[in-house]
Amino acid sequence: MVSEATNTRQKSVLWDWLTTVDHKKIAILYLIAGTLFFLKAGAMAVMMRVQLIAPEMEFISGQTFNEFITMHGTIMLFLAVTPILFAFMNFVVPLQIGARDVAFPFVNALGFWLFFFGGVLLSLSWFFGGAPDAGWTSYVPLASREFGGIGIDFYVLGLQVSGLGTLVSGINFIVTIINMRAPGMTMMRIPLFCWTTLVTSILIVFAFTPLAAGLALLMLDRIFDGQFFIPGEGGNVVIWQHIFWIFGHPEVYILVLPAFGMISEVIPAFSKKRLFGYTAMVFATLIIGFLGFMVWVHHMFTVGIGPIANSVFAIATMVIGVPTGIKIFNWLFTMWGGKLTFNTAMLFAASFVPTFVLGGVTGVMLAMAPVDHLYHDTYFVVAHFHYIIVGGIVLGIFAALFYWYPKMFGHKLNETLGKIMFWLFYIGFHLTFFVQHILGLIGMPRRVYTYLEEQGMDTMNFISSIGAFIMAAAVVILIINIIYSALKAERITVDDPWDARTLEWATHTPVPEYNFAQTPQVRSLDPLFYEKIHGNGKMKPAEPMDEIHMPNGSFIPFMMSLGLFIVGFGFISFHLDLFISPYIWIAVGGIITFGSMAMRSIKDDHGYHIPKETVEEMEKELS
Amino acid sequence: MAEDMEQPFEKSSMSNEEKRKINREQRVQMIAFAVMIGLTLLAFIAAGSDMLPGTFTIPFILLLAVVQLFLQLYYFMHLKDKDHGWPNSFMISGLVLTAPTIVALMLLIGIVKF
Ligand code: HEM
Ligand SMILES: [Cu+2]
């Protein structure tokens, strides 16, 4: 085949994937790694629900429960949902803006490997004296060196390494969207998913830096005898809460904004209408991004900061409801009067809207500072954020998965299995989390490993656990679907199987490694749809056919991340009794990382060119 | 292609117009640098002299700091030049986001201690 002529095809499969800098392959790496972490954290959730299915169960111990609850939250937020969102951002954004790759392909690969090694470092904790157990928020003094176990060290360093990966990927996406747009693709023509990716990336840059600082302080406290958070020595525990939530609230918007973007792509495609109120959507996204930084104290209402501060932050929090409401109405109006097709992707996307509204309503309830003293640290909060995270983000991810799957893997997912999965997941989700509102209101505290009989909590906990099992069954069906479709589904050969509107559907399936043989000329919002109506259905090229400059693959990102992983382990091993001194780990890791960086700086790498003839032949073969 | 990039360039490809611009830019940078040194000296003198009361010195050097920041960003880091819309908007949004955060933290942690 001609396509074998290009550079990456000449490598062995494993080496190709380890060294790839192609945004489409990195997307698939993110998707696989994120899914594995998702399954791991999901299994923990199921075990926690087994423990809570009846009063005074003894399925797992309280200590294990604490470790599960911490790892479940930490993994889901940092190592499952974030990478899966990055997978779609990586795959789709360059295609949607008509680019050949992201701005810094090398940094893209680095971001993936840093995330991956950070996740592995965190997971290693199971083999060295137990996982972190102070909750995903890791509040001091519970997490201080006096009271927190060795697991917290893994939390601190694992998140530090993977957070670095998230940070560099965020920078990469900002530059990509600003600099790599095709001719004619103005800022007000980029699809909404690109806008939400841009705003999310900005939030990452502004929010992951405080997290890195906070984690560094906690590391100094725990490993190097610092006293930032130790009151007896002049420190202040509340500073940790502030730093954590200055990061933490933007983080929840980092997660939900890309899901908004996915929904805004899927709903117009299956309503056969343009997105209602594109401009309003863009500005709502920007405003949400901004306000996301002004509300962190709503997680600390019960700390005792005082009525004035609480009121200010309560009002700021409620204000976010306004731009969010604008978005909800825009999705509804997009569907209004459209020619709706309810396939699996659209079912997930459409059901996102009401569940997300429920989560928003409880959010505004929680924002009322005086009543929050009742809600705080009960299952009501658990219900709130799961309505947002599962009912919002995860549904969005499933919609995106079913929607973009044909472009990514060359075949659709099975619709029958998909619909069965949707209904199981949707019913299971509401069973699990709706009753948790009421559990919270009657006083069940969160993060407890058991409860007593005769407090009116038995039935609802039972229902909640059954719901969780149904959700788990839905995920199993999704996996069956993926395997079944990979073996049985009909291969997609057309470029645009959904009759959609945006540029990614103007590329061939499978997408050649250079994406667009000729950069497309964009003439409107929803460029492909415009060409279908006003042109011949194909994008007009903005440049003549020519040879294409591509970046070389590189193993350096892997090595740089491996080095940091070893350094991180070295810091942790100050608290471990290993036969190798921590200083040796740190030195070895440091040499690997800085050596790789030096190599990258010294060795010139100008990439390679795909000759014009090969491009022409590949184009002929694919169309 | 790739081979060409390793070749050194023999002579500058800039036009005279561009060269003149670069020269002017250099002069502006020098002046900005001198002004900044002057401001720093002023700050040192204000802080070191016994004659000025603290109530004057503190706001005064804070004001100097703001001027410095502006000079650094706009003259040294080229925010004033054209085609710097994106860097400008990122810098400004960074300031707009961090300023209230820091003020809130100072008010909260500095006064009520949490
Ligand atoms: C209309 C928008 C929202 C409002 C008004 C809101 C409000 C709140 C409030 C006041 C709390 C603190 C409750 C307490 O601890 O007593 C809270 C907790 C939480 N919210 Fe939201 N929220 C909103 C949207 C979101 C979104 C979009 C997400 C996620 C993507 C989210 C995730 C969370 C999480 C994870 C927590 C619990 C954190 C913890 O204590 O571990 N919220 N929310
Ligand atoms: Cu929040």
TrEMBL record, chain A:
<comment type="pathway">
    <text>Energy metabolism; oxidative phosphorylation.</text>
</comment>
<dbReference type="InterPro" id="IPR014241">
    <property type="entry name" value="Cyt_c_oxidase_su1_bac"/>
</dbReference>
<dbReference type="GO" id="GO:0006119">
    <property type="term" value="P:oxidative phosphorylation"/>
</dbReference>
<feature type="transmembrane region" description="Helical">
    <location>
        <begin position="308"/>
        <end position="333"/>
    </location>
</feature>
<keyword id="KW-0186">Copper</keyword>
<keyword id="KW-0349">Heme</keyword>
<feature type="transmembrane region" description="Helical">
    <location>
        <begin position="462"/>
        <end position="484"/>
    </location>
</feature>
<feature type="transmembrane region" description="Helical">
    <location>
        <begin position="555"/>
        <end position="576"/>
    </location>
</feature>
<keyword id="KW-0408">Iron</keyword>
<feature type="transmembrane region" description="Helical">
    <location>
        <begin position="27"/>
        <end position="48"/>
    </location>
</feature>
<dbReference type="GO" id="GO:0005886">
    <property type="term" value="C:plasma membrane"/>
</dbReference>
<feature type="transmembrane region" description="Helical">
    <location>
        <begin position="105"/>
        <end position="128"/>
    </location>
</feature>
<keyword id="KW-0679">Respiratory chain</keyword>
<dbReference type="GO" id="GO:0015990">
    <property type="term" value="P:electron transport coupled proton transport"/>
</dbReference>
<feature type="transmembrane region" description="Helical">
    <location>
        <begin position="68"/>
        <end position="93"/>
    </location>
</feature>
<keyword id="KW-0472">Membrane</keyword>
<feature type="transmembrane region" description="Helical">
    <location>
        <begin position="417"/>
        <end position="442"/>
    </location>
</feature>
<keyword id="KW-0812">Transmembrane</keyword>
<dbReference type="GO" id="GO:0022904">
    <property type="term" value="P:respiratory electron transport chain"/>
</dbReference>
<feature type="transmembrane region" description="Helical">
    <location>
        <begin position="239"/>
        <end position="263"/>
    </location>
</feature>
<keyword id="KW-1278">Translocase</keyword>
<feature type="transmembrane region" description="Helical">
    <location>
        <begin position="275"/>
        <end position="296"/>
    </location>
</feature>
Automatic annotation (TrEMBL), chain B:
<keyword id="KW-1003">Cell membrane</keyword>
<protein>
    <submittedName>
        <fullName>Cytochrome c oxidase subunit 4</fullName>
    </submittedName>
</protein>
<feature type="transmembrane region" description="Helical">
    <location>
        <begin position="58"/>
        <end position="77"/>
    </location>
</feature>
<dbReference type="Pfam" id="PF03626">
    <property type="entry name" value="COX4_pro"/>
</dbReference>
<dbReference type="GO" id="GO:0005886">
    <property type="term" value="C:plasma membrane"/>
</dbReference>
<keyword id="KW-0812">Transmembrane</keyword>
<feature type="region of interest" description="Disordered">
    <location>
        <begin position="1"/>
        <end position="21"/>
    </location>
</feature>
<keyword id="KW-0472">Membrane</keyword>
<keyword id="KW-1133">Transmembrane helix</keyword>
<feature type="transmembrane region" description="Helical">
    <location>
        <begin position="89"/>
        <end position="112"/>
    </location>
</feature>
<dbReference type="InterPro" id="IPR005171">
    <property type="entry name" value="Cyt_c_oxidase_su4_prok"/>
</dbReference>
<feature type="transmembrane region" description="Helical">
    <location>
        <begin position="28"/>
        <end position="46"/>
    </location>
</feature>
